[in-house]
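Data card: per-record layout.
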Amino acid sequence: MNGLGDRIFSIEQATDLIIQNKGIGKPKFNDINASFQEIFTQKLNDSEEVKFSKHANQRLESRNINLSEEQVSRLNQGVLMARDKNINESLVMMDNLAFIVNIKNNTVVTALESNDESNVFTNIDGAVIV
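The structure for this 130-residue chain is written out next.
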């Protein structure tokens, strides 16, 4: 006997019993046939939206740049496109705005408008226009 009152013949049966007894929800990826690529893609799609560094927030505020939900969505799309191309530090251009984004950390490092004096971007290895 296993202390649970029933015989357990597989790890799956044991897991199901524990989940049922503790009221824990089923694992998100319980399909034994799910490929690594499917799980990886799902995790990427579930990742949180782009974050803004303290510096980027200061730049947005000082330049009176207010992003709409649609613009944030487009910025996230740009980050995904950069990630697909294995870019590490990207210039993401959208409308009249430019963002330097650390792709690995999913973080906007700085932001500016196209009418700013500084139009030179350094330490990037790719650019995305959305």
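Known properties of this structure: The first helix runs from residue 11 to 22. The longest strand covers residues 107-113.

See the next section for split statistics.
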